[in-house]
Amino acid sequence: MKIAVMGGDGFIGWPTSLHLSHAGHEVHILDNLSRRWIDTELGVQSLTPMDSIQERTRIWHAETGRRIHFNLIDLARDYELLKNWLAEHRPDAIVHFAEQRAAPYSMKSDRHKNYTVNNNVNATHNLLNALVELELDTHLVHLGTMGVYGYSTVGAAIPEGYLPVGIETMGGETVSQEILYPSNPGSIYHMTKCLDQLLFQFYAKNDRLRITDLHQGIVWGTHTEQTRIHEQLVNRFDYDGDYGTVLNRFLIQAAIGYPLTVHGTGGQTRAFIHVQDSVRCIEIALNNPPARGGRVEIFNQMTETHRVRDLAEMISKMTGTEIAWLPNPRKEAPENDLVVRNEKFLELGLKPTTLGQGLLSEIVDVAKKYAYRVDRTRVPAVSAWTKDIAATVERDPEGMRLKSVS
Ligand code: USQ
């Protein structure tokens, strides 16, 4: 297939591009390199040293003989460029990662909220709009999030996208209908993915676009089979308070002897998936497109659930690192249970890579190797969900701990 990977320079976009190229597909990355600009804005860098995208693709070609093409295009702002590119290349499929993906970054300030909404919603809409205008029958695979469902405990498993409901008619009968599972976003970032869902419903219904939405959990790990091929193909690995995600952060913190930063009681239960499984799921989704005129295909892209404090305790035991119980900078339920259906990927052949000591210590080893690149003052998560919460989360003089809630 000819596949365009929108956002192919990012944390999942890069290993996905390598995985699809390795599988024999013709891969074109479209990216505005915004993730690199945000690193500059925040004054942070990936734990692993990343080369330019041009250098990365050059090394891939030198090592494997395969080419990955790169195009500097901003999906949200350069509509004409995007449309021209699509008209010229007519890809069979598009994988859409080109969105700002950090919840804490989206909540930093009013400017960051505006940026996240404008960037994410426009990128998705521009893409859908261009496919219709050009009459392309391209399969669009979008990286959504488990966060569209919210994290309240409902006592029932979360289905894959659609919920059967019974509605009482005026005549007193009950009719059944399948609706999108009610959206319940916990951040501006998650809200943009809920808005994306509505755009997909409309374009699938009105223009018969073929769309797959992948509701992914928290990705952990760093290497995939292809990123291991050469040191310069290494994936990015975020540890800072905005872009670092919980399990990878704990592993890096353990590697540098930084107390594990558990928010609140650590009672949040979340869905997880290893980065290797993430790229496999995307390939499976590409190979199983919905029919034209069919409904939006939705998969839950996760393999296991864990409570944050259980992860912290496991890593603390494994490495001897202490746990810091911190006031939560987010507005979220202190405790939640989470049961998620994920049979669709399993039935299509996914063999989950679950949390194992071997893989966890491999990540700690990667983190130790690059520990000299960590700026400890960038570890605390200080982006607060409300102004009231902000008063409780300023850094203390060591830049290590957060003020406790009074
Ligand atoms: N948390 C801690 N300590 C930390 C960091 C996080 O206790 O040092 C807690 C948070 O308060 C939260 C949970 O861990 O309860 C998860 O936080 P996270 O930063 O790992 O994940 P999140 O903000 O939800 O976002 C990440 C990705 C996002 C993706 C989402 C999937 O950045 O792109 O959509 O995971 S999901 O969480 O399933 O919605």
Note the main attributes of this structure.
406 residues; 3-stranded mixed beta sheet; binds sulfoquinovose-uridine-C1,5'-diphosphate; Rossmann fold; alpha/beta; 14 strands; NAD-dependent epimerase/dehydratase family protein; 7-stranded parallel beta sheet; Epimerase_deHydtase
Structural features, described:
InterPro entries: Epimerase_deHydtase, NAD(P)-bd_dom_sf. This is NAD-dependent epimerase/dehydratase family protein. Belongs to the NAD(P)-dependent epimerase/dehydratase family. The chain is of the alpha/beta class and 406 residues long. It has one domain: 3-Layer(aba) Sandwich (Rossmann fold). Helix content is 36%, strand content 18%. The chain has 13 helices and 14 strands. The strands form four sheets. A seven-stranded parallel sheet has the order 3-2-1-4-5-8-12, sandwiched between helices. The protein has a three-stranded mixed sheet with strand order 9-11-13. A two-stranded antiparallel sheet has the order 6-7. β1, α1 and β2 form a beta-alpha-beta unit. The structure holds sulfoquinovose-uridine-C1,5'-diphosphate. Sulfoquinovose-uridine-C1,5'-diphosphate (USQ) binds next to α8, β10 and β11.
List the helices and strands and how they pair.
Elements: E1 2-6, H1 13-22, E2 26-31, H2 34-42, H3 53-64, E3 68-72, H4 79-89, E4 93-96, H5 103-106, H6 110-133, E5 139-145, E6 162-168, E7 174-180, H7 188-207, E8 211-216, E9 218-220, H8 246-256, E10 260-263, E11 269-274, H9 275-287, E12 297-301, E13 304-307, H10 308-319, E14 323-326, H11 343-347, H12 357-369, H13 387-390
Parallel strand pairs: 1-2, 1-4, 2-3, 4-5, 5-8, 8-12, 9-11, 10-14
Antiparallel strand pairs: 6-7, 11-13
Helix pairs in contact: 1-9, 4-6, 6-7, 8-10, 8-12
